[in-house]
Each structure stands twice: as structure tokens, then as C-alpha cells.
Amino acid sequence: MVDTRRRLGSGVDGGVDWGSAVDGGVDWGAGEALELLKSWSAVEGQTEEVIFDHLHATAFQYTPLGRTILGPAQNIKTITKEDLKNYISTHYTASRMVIAASGAVKHEDIVEQVKKLFTKLSTDPTVASELVAKEPAIFTGSEVRIVDDDMPLAQFAVAFNGASWIDPDSIALMVMQSMLGSWNKNTGGGRRVGINEIAESMMAFNTNYKDTELFGVYAIAKPDCLDDLAYAIMYEISKLSYRVSKADVTRARNQLKSSLMLHIDGTSPIAEDIGRQLLTYGRRIPFAELFARIDAVDASTIKRVANRFIFDQDVAIAAMGPI
User: Fold this and answer.
1) This prediction's pTM
2) One-character DSSP codes across 88-142
3) Which residue, 175, 195, 196, 202, is CA-closest to 259?
4) Which residues does 252 contact at the CB level (< 8 Å), separation at least 6?
5) Contact 322/155 with Cβ under 8 angstroms?
6) Of all residues in the chain, what percent carry a pLDDT higher than 70?
């Protein structure tokens, strides 16, 4: 699971003239505010989204990564047209934007459209790495609990401070995520028998950012199973530091490669992948190179990386429900 939503990104829609938007061509009104409020309500209604919002808030206290995506409803209600113009002119800059295309397109046609639609972008030379250096994400071992005894199930996420996108060990952490896997009581499957017996569902996550990462497990369980489930999860995670089988690593590597290929099964995900990699690495990594890096991860690599990021390290926890 990879989530880049918290960094100010460079999403580009060819149908939007951002230059006109900066000049006031976008008419911000009650309709747009209502749509944002609907999105806010939808997010607040999804417990998993709320858990991860609180997880980021407690793990990265007083840093940009600790801020929510949409913010409080009061802020949405008070957003003005001038606020949007200032935001676009500040953050949608030429130096921080990638325009990617895939499918039956001609390079010359794309270039021509870009020249027409992106003529009034800010030329502020500040790049994302400079913004990150100015306000780095600092991990704080901590926890937040939202007690709600009316909820039938408890949900929680436990996370460690991991590797950034450009850290060489980020590949090993992707394999570790695959080793821990995911499981849902309604669909069955999975290999973590001890966890399966007491969890309603569980999912390992690996959320990379420009300068840091959250690596951990999100789980749902009945209130009387929480203690046993927390122990089982931490046992499985900590075991990566000292007991790793060759067969488990091979299976996880193959699973990871299959997952990566499935995620680029159309022109839209391919274009998104190109843009994300250019913003992150400055180039697109060929699959041959990426798969070679994955295949280079063995049992000793897993143990080394787990000792670096997991063994005797602080954790951040967010929990909600009858806890």
C-alpha cells in the first residue's frame, strides 16, 4: 500500500487550464464548497481513513505529514476564491510539475497542448526536496485512542518509521510488507493462522514519502480479541528481525512482482506511474531493474532491514472503537 497524498503533488488534468485558474478563471462558489464537504463527510465515515489520518497526526506531530488531507469542515466553509488562486500560484509551479502521457498519443501533440494550456504557471524555482528539507517529517513514537463503545469492532494501526522512496532499503520493506500480507475473514486465505483465528481482517501497509515512511499493520477485531491480536501481530513483525525462511522470501518476492505488474494494466495507471517516478526518482525505473532489485532481497537482507527499522524502535499507534 502506497500513499503519496499528503505531500503537495503535481496532479495534472489536460482539461484544466491552470494558467486561467491562477488568473481567476475558476469560479469558486457554494457548489464547490458543498462537494468538498461531501468528500469530507465521506472520508470521516470511513473508519480506515480516519485511523490513518490519526496515525499520521500522532506519528508526525507538528510537521506537514501530520496534517489531515481535507482539514476541518470549518476551513472548507471559509475557503475563498483568493485562497485558491494563492494556493495554485504557490504550489502548482513549473519546477514541481510533471506532465505524463501513455497510450496512442504522439509526443509532438502533447507538447503542443502543453504549450497552449500551461502558459501561466509560476516559475518559482523551489522544488519539493527543498520544501522537505525546510520542514522535514520527524517521527514521534506515540499513540492516539478514540474510544467509542458503541462500535461493534475495534480497529487499530501500528507503525514504525521506515525508509523514504529513494532509500535503497525501501525495496526490502516492500518485500516485508508482502511477507506479512493481508487477510479478511469474509474471503479467507492467508497463512498467518494465529492471527486469522482472532482477527476480522488485517493488512500490512508500507506508505512511502519523499523523506520517510510508515511501515506496519492495520487490523480489525472484536474487543475481547485485541490483546491476543496485538501480541500476535507484534510477534510476526518482530520475527522478521531474527527468523526468516528462504521460502517465505521467495514467495513474497514473486507476489510483489505480480502485484506491481497488475497495477499498470492500463494507460491511466501507466501515466500515473511515470509521473510519480519522475517526481520521486527523477527518472522512470525500468521493470527489469526494479525486478532485479527485488530479486536481490534475501533472508539476510530482510533481517538486516528489520533490525534497522523495527527491532527496539519506537512505534506509533492509532486505535478506534471499544478499546
Assistant:
1) 0.81
2) HHHHSBGGG------SS--HHHHHHHHHHHSSS-B-----HHHHHHHS------E
3) 175
4) 175, 176, 178, 179
5) no
6) 83
